[in-house]
């Protein structure tokens, strides 16, 4: 146990020194939200075993899919750190598993698993005692399945075919979760699906309810998953082979042409970008096509716009993923790096979006004015916002040639990457609002408005990104080189002067504001205006008109209010006058 305890102590020491300042505040906000969700899950054990089984299935999916979509999960201790110590893969896996229990997420999940104790108290004393080992084994299953999911995707990302396949699978899974109401209607699911009782997340509950074999099955599953993870750790030590055959040198007559050629080559060869592109395409197509299961084709024409929004979110840290290669741009005065990247992004993502939109809209037969207005507006807005957001809110990332054995791990700041992606999704959607409203109310008049807003966003945001890169290039390079964002004394003092209540208001506002503003507000209002009020995913669709529109608008105002409250407490306050002696 010496190795296991040592790794746990190492993880604890790293966390003690890493979670400070803004990072500690972000972790605290996430922990607060997690505790609320965990308390709700534990309460399900009092309400009904079926509800608790469904809730634990959601936690299982969160552990398996969350790290895959959020940069590879927690890798405070990487297997590569111990490669020269001669530790066997199984012993290394056991040590890393022990260290994985040290952290906020495992503690929050353990609190959610306390629902097993609540369920056991309703059966008997022995059942309550069984709940304790069931909780620990269930948590071990959650953590191991998370590690294995990330490891499998990491192995797949070592080849172009694997990266594309992993992106398609991940996109289909995530979009299916977003359209879960479709499958609930299609399969006639009105309560808790019976399938949740067959998932490993329910085995602990089965043991608590008297089926003692489930406890032994959980222990056996932990050993099996541990062995599988150890095998995958052995595979991780290998490096993908890169062939240099068939490559032609970049021959461009202009600086912008060289940037375009370099970016096109990167989009076609970088496995992470291959994965992101495949993920965005699969997400957009499946999200729009899944309602066909219940015979509704109303979302199919929007596959292209959805793809554009998701592709922009995946590329929100465009400059960060290049790492310290920014010095090449800094050493080339007058180089139009931003415009070249914009052209390359439009060439790769725009061609797919146009084909996808035209084909899907032709299948349905419309609405042509709306989709043709949204397409240029979103495409131009995304092409302008991708470089702008990446230079204004750059997240320090690992240089591509120094990435770990997990290719998904492009940065140590997972929260920053996730927040940046959500910010990009929101901003791109906003750029399409004028054209979408004009097309909805005025028909074909929305198309030139979409072309105009798209061109304006492309030019204006690109110009702002160029100015930022020219004036703050050295600072951005230093951020990527050191991995630390500069914090001025004034801004730090202003944040530290906030009270605990104000800090929580800021955290909740920025953390939860997107939920009422976009899914329950803007998206729900779009469904109501389109006449689709038979949905079950959005609260507004449960109400008759005109109350459905009122509720959707109320959610939009609530989201704006949350963001506004967060900005209000962070506003710059005038310093008090000082009386000189």
Number of strands: 0
> Into which percentage range does the β-strand content fall?
under 5%
Show unreliable segments: 239-246, 488-493, 574-581
Question: What is the total number of structural domains?
Answer: 3
Give a written overview of the molecule.
With 581 residues, this protein is mainly alpha-helical. It has helices spanning 2-18, 21-47, 49-69, 89-100, 104-113, 115-121, 125-156, 160-178, 180-186, 203-208, 213-236, 255-269, 271-289, 303-314, 318-321, 326-330, 337-364, 368-392, 414-431, 433-442, 446-482, 489-496, 500-512, 514-529, 547-569. The protein has 3 domains: 2-236, no CATH class; 255-486, no CATH class; 488-581. The protein has 25 helices and no strands. Helix 4 (89-100) packs across helix 11 (213-236), helix 7 (125-156) runs parallel beside helix 11 and helix 18 packs parallel to helix 21. The protein is globular, with a radius of gyration of 25 Å. 41% of the residues are buried.
Q: What's a concise summary of this model?
A:
The chain has 581 residues and is mainly alpha-helical. Helix content is 71%, strand content 0%. It folds into 3 domains: 2-236, no CATH class; 255-486, no CATH class; 488-581.
């Amino acid at each position: 146990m010496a190795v296991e305890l040592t790794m746990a102590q190492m993880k604890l020491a790293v966390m003690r020194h890493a979670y400070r300042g803004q990072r500690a505040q972000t972790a605290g906000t996430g922990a607060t939200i997690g505790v609320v969700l965990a308390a709700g899950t534990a309460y399900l054990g009092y309400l009904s075993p079926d509800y608790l089984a469904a809730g634990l299935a959601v936690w299982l999916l969160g552990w398996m899919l969350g790290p895959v979509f959020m940069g590879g999960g927690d890798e405070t201790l990487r297997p590569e750190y111990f490669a020269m110590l001669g530790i066997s893969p199984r012993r290394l896996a056991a040590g890393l598993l022990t260290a994985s229990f040290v952290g906020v997420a495992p503690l929050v999940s353990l609190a959610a698993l306390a629902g097993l104790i609540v369920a056991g108290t309703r059966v008997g004393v022995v059942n309550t005692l069984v709940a304790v080992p069931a909780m620990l084994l269930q948590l071990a299953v959650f953590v191991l399945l998370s590690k294995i999911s990330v490891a499998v995707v990491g192995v797949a990302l070592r080849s172009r075919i694997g990266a594309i396949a992993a992106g398609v699978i991940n996109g289909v899974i995530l979009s299916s979760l977003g359209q879960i109401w479709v499958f609930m209607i299609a399969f006639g699911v009105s309560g808790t699906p019976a399938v949740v009782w067959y998932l490993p997340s329910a085995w602990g509950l089965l043991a608590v309810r008297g089926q003692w074999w489930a406890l032994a099955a959980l222990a056996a599953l932990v050993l099996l998953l541990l062995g599988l993870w150890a095998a995958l750790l052995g595979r991780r030590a290998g490096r993908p082979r890169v062939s240099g055959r068939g490559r032609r040198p970049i021959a461009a007559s202009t600086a912008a042409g060289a940037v375009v050629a370099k970016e096109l080559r990167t989009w076609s060869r970088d496995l992470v970008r291959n994965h992101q592109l495949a993920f965005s395409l699969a997400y957009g197509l499946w999200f729009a096509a899944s309602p066909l299961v219940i015979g509704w084709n109303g979302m199919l024409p929007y596959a292209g716009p959805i793809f554009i929004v998701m592709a922009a979110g995946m590329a929100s840290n465009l400059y960060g993923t290049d790492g310290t290669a920014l010095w090449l741009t800094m050493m080339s005065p007058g180089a139009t790096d931003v415009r070249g990247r914009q052209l390359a992004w439009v060439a790769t993502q725009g061609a797919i979006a146009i084909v996808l939109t035209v084909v899907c809209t032709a299948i349905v037969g419309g609405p042509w004015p709306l989709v043709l207005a949204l397409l240029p507006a979103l495409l131009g807005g995304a092409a302008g916002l991708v470089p702008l957001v990446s230079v204004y809110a750059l997240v320090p990332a690992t240089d591509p040639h120094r990435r770990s054995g997990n290719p998904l791990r492009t940065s140590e700041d997972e929260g920053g990457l996730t927040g940046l992606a959500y910010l990009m999704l929101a901003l791109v959607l906003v750029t399409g609002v004028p054209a979408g409203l004009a097309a909805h109310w005025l028909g074909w008049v929305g198309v030139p408005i979409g072309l105009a807003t798209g061109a304006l966003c492309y030019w204006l945001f690109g110009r702002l990104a160029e100015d930022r890169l020219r004036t703050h290039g050295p600072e951005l390079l230093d951020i990527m080189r050191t991995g630390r964002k500069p914090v001025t004394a004034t801004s730090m003092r202003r944040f530290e002067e906030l009270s605990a209540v104000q800090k929580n208001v800021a955290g909740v506002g920025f953390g939860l504001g997107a939920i009422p503003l976009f899914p329950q507000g803007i998206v729900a209002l779009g469904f109501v205006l389109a006449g689709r009020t038979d949905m079950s995913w959005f609260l507004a669709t449960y109400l008759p008109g005109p109350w459905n529109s009122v509720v959707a608008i109320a959610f939009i105002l609530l989201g704006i209010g949350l963001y506004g409250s967060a900005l209000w407490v962070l506003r710059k306050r005038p310093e008090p006058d000082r009386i000189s002696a």
